[in-house]
Amino acid sequence: MESISFTLQDGLAHIQLQRPDRLNAVSLTMLSELQELFERLGKEQAVTGVLLAGSGGNFSAGADLNEIRHFTPLEAIAFAEQGQKLCSMIEGFPRPVLVAVSGYALGAGLELALSCDYILADTTAQFAFRELSYGVLPAFGGTQRLPRLVGKAKAKEMIFTGQLLGAEEALRIGLINQLFAPEEMLVKVKGQLQQICSYGLLSLQLGKEVIDTGYEINLAAACKMERDAFAVCFSTDDQKEGMDAFMEKRQPRFTGK
Amino acid sequence: MGPWQLLKTDIRRGVGTIYLDNDQRFNTLHRDCILELRDALKVLEDDTDVGCIVLTGDPGESFAVGANIAEMKDFQPLDGWKFSQLGQGLFDQIEQAKKPVIAALNGITMGGGCDLALACDIRLASDRLKIAHPGAKLGIITGFCGTQKLPRIVGRNKAKEIFMTAGTYSAQEALRMKLIEQVYPAAQFMDSVRVYAEQIAAQPRQALQLAKKLLNAAENVCLNNGQVMELGAFASLFPRAGTMERIDDFFAAHSRIDSPE
């Protein structure tokens, strides 16, 4: 892997975008490498959670303009499809995926972040969609995921104006969930992910799936889907262990079964 | 009214209040409690003295904390399915009720208790609120619509954080994420809730009922259909004596303000 790096520690996969001299611009190589890695991690039983981050003080400044500027329309479609496929794969990943943003999270970089379960950032973070100023559009699902997260009007404001949003503002509008000091962010985020992954992995997976799927269908149908997923929990060892531990006032030992 | 074992009710100045009172430290939403709630809601909904319904755990420590784990721990999948169905039936009833239902969150609100609050039209909280969805710690997800309603209220990503971390949030945090509409100091909590609810109860009933219907529908129908429904609802309020009088009053009041001496 030349554009990303990856370590696995105590079940947590830590993926870093590694093109710091190019502000971690999303290249075709990076897209393929991320896709291969997420495919591989999805099959690894040992992986309980994923943390996505940048390097060199930035998350990602967006698509690599050197690569895309001479695209034909057909090449552009192939590129957008590949990006959308990766983002859907991250969103549908069976384990929790958190993203920690420092510095720039622009365009395609922000779209990668938007496909994670939620975004955490430090005070240096800056967010924007500047595609319109190059005469193009966000195409990795940004025009669809952003309004679902911050509301239609705020999404239009960001995409129409291309303005850089500071971390405080991003927190206020709900683009990010939490804000940290730069020196403590990675420790705090890893701690949070570890905490999450200490719970029953099956119920986390079911929860993630019913939230994502249910958000796209009408409420009545979504609640029925939740009911069925809830019932499935009572066929797992994790439910027995979780509730026994609660009754016995001890820490549960979940096995993900 | 009643007699109920697990709750009390009263009616004052147009506001019908249901006080959850399990006679235990925390109000759990077990089967009998859900059945009594359905029953009491129906009574208040049908009572012509009531314009607005309040649901609270005051003066106890909790609003509600969800299911009784001692009971639930030995559930088979089918028991889980039936329990979920029972709870969702109550929440449907709250949403379909002709009158607004306000959740007055006096204290600890967790799991199914949080879902009960989400089913209400408006959430008011004491500054002592502690709200959480700790199902992940028990190896389950909620079956009371929380995974569906919470994202629609606080956004998908915040909802995922709440479920995944199983963290507990304060009244101020809940207000910031728009999970609740108002926070009041604990000492004046129920007084503040009553003032708020009386104001709603004083609104014309027909208009209130239609507004609730339309706002609920707005989540599920496309904009064009929603607008057509709005037209029909608006038209149905004319020409009613009450509506015309209120319009006359409004113009009379404004002409007094607008016209110079």
Description:
The complex is a heterodimer of chains A (257) and B (261). Chain A starts with a strand and ends in a 10-residue tail after the last helix. In chain A, helix 3 packs parallel to helix 4, helix 5 (142-150) packs across helix 6 (152-161) and helix 9 runs antiparallel to helix 10. In chain A, the strands form two sheets. A six-stranded mixed beta sheet of chain A has the order 1-2-3-4-6-9, with helices on both faces. In chain A, strands 5-7-8 form a three-stranded mixed beta sheet. Chain A folds into two domains: 4-197, 2-enoyl-CoA Hydratase, Chain A, domain 1, CATH 3.90.226.10; 201-247, Lyase 2-enoyl-coa Hydratase, Chain  A, domain 2 (Orthogonal Bundle). Chain A has helices at residues 28-43, 65-68, 73-91, 107-114, 142-150, 152-161, 167-172, 185-197, 201-214, 219-233, 237-247, and strands at 4-9, 12-17, 49-53, 97-101, 104-106, 118-122, 126-128, 165-166, 178-180. Chain A contains eleven helices and nine strands. Chain A is 49% helix and 15% strand. Chain A is globular. With 257 residues, chain A is α/β, with parallel strands linked by helices. Chain B is of the alpha/beta class. Chain B is built from twelve helices and ten strands. In chain B, the strands form two sheets. A six-stranded mixed beta sheet of chain B has the order 1-2-3-5-7-10, with helices on both faces. Chain B has a four-stranded mixed beta sheet with strand order 4-6-8-9. In chain B, helix 6 crosses helix 7. Chain B is globular. Chains A and B meet through helix 8, helix 9, helix 10 and helix 11 of A and helix 2, helix 3, helix 5, helix 6 and helix 7 of B.
List descriptors:
heterodimer; A: 257 residues; alpha/beta; 2-enoyl-CoA Hydratase, Chain A, domain 1; Lyase 2-enoyl-coa Hydratase, Chain  A, domain 2; 6-stranded mixed sheet; 3-stranded mixed sheet; 9 strands; globular; B: 261 residues; 2 domains; 4-stranded mixed sheet
